[in-house]
Design goal:
By secondary structure, the protein is an alpha/beta fold. It has one domain: Glutaredoxin, CATH 3.40.30. The protein contains 6 helices and 6 strands. The protein has helices spanning 3-19, 29-39, 70-77, 93-96, 112-118, 145-155, and strands at 21-26, 46-52, 84-90, 105-107, 125-131, 135-140. The protein has a 6-stranded mixed beta sheet with strand order 1-6-5-2-3-4, with helices on both faces. β2 (46-52), α3 (70-77) and β3 form a beta-alpha-beta unit. The radius of gyration is 16 Å and the shape is globular.
Length: 159
């Protein structure tokens, strides 16, 4: 690749990480029960919701290669997800209908996640990890394996 292309890619990645916002909070019992019912989150201690923002919130078309999950498969293969329910939720229902299976890939029904978690920050992706007590960690923007691992460790219920 040319030096200009590499510089541009580096610049865009820096913008993504600088603009990323972190949040934490607590869902009430009813909200946890809705997540359990809608997404088949049963016995796992945590649920990871990988959220794809509206196309207009992103500086590139993050829906372009939506049919391939290889990147996320590789990303999560190095993390211990033994007691974790990992799903993907999409804002753009028309652009993502080819991957929606109701098991691991879902529409953002009534734009619940967008309105309640991701609307406040324009980014390409978002991450929401919730434990059975309703405690959550959230990141709006690009996220790393290390961040996911740290959030999992923070939210893991000690027995």
């Amino acid at each position: 690749m040319s030096r200009k292309v590499l510089t541009l890619i580096s610049f865009l990645l820096i913008i993504c990480f600088v603009n990323a916002q972190n949040y934490e909070g607590k869902l009430n019992k009813e909200q946890v029960e809705v997540l359990e019912g809608l997404f088949g989150w049963e016995k796992e201690e945590l649920i990871i919701i990988n959220y794809r923002q509206p196309k207009g919130y992103c500086h590139y078309d993050q829906y372009m290669s939506i049919g391939s999950t290889k990147w996320f498969d590789d990303f999560y293969s190095e993390l211990n997800l033994k007691d974790v329910h990992n799903i993907f939720v999409y804002y753009e229902s028309k652009r993502s209908k080819g991957v929606i299976d109701g098991k691991k890939h879902f529409f953002d029904l009534n734009k619940y996640f967008f309105d309640n978690f991701f609307k406040k920050d324009k980014s390409c992706y978002g991450l929401l990890i919730v434990n059975k007590h309703g405690n959550y960690q959230q990141k709006n923007g690009e996220y790393s394996k290390k961040e996911v691992k740290n959030y999992i460790n923070k939210l893991t219920i000690k027995k």
